[in-house]
Structure formats: structure tokens, C-alpha cells
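On clarity, I found the account of how folds are encoded harder to follow than it need be. An entry of this sort, consisting of the sequence and the corresponding C-alpha cells, reads as follows:
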Amino acid sequence: MKLLDFLKRERKKSASVAKERLQIIVAHQRSQRGQPDFLPMLEKELLEVIRRYVEVDDDAINMSLDSEDNCSVLELNVTLPRSS
């Protein structure tokens, strides 16, 4: 019986972890809904320009667009490798 109790506890733990991950994914997708269609293309083009000078991974660039009143702010974060 102890083995069955242990397995049930593990399922509950993994279920809660899966639920948290799903909530993060849903929140991320909701935050992307209001963004203009050009942002993915802009991110790709910026990454190409950066790669002319520095080798970076595909996930090295993060962009977000915040809008308040009549002003929009585009935030761009690029993780660059350390130079040797």
C-alpha cells in the first residue's frame, strides 16, 4: 500500500507542475495577442543584423511592446556572448 500512496503523491506533484507550466504558456500567449504582426519579422531581421557582427543564438533576443495612453515602448534585450 505504501508504494501506491507514493505513486499517487508523485502524480499530484507532477500534475501541479504541469498546471503551472500551462498557466505560464497561456499567460505568454495572451501577452502576445495585442502585439502588432510585424514584431516577429522585426525580431528576425534584428537578429540577422546582429549576426553580421556577433554570433548569437536564436533565443538571444527578447522583445516586448508596452503601450500606455498614446505612447508605445519597444523593449529589446539581446544576450551577447562574452568576448575572449
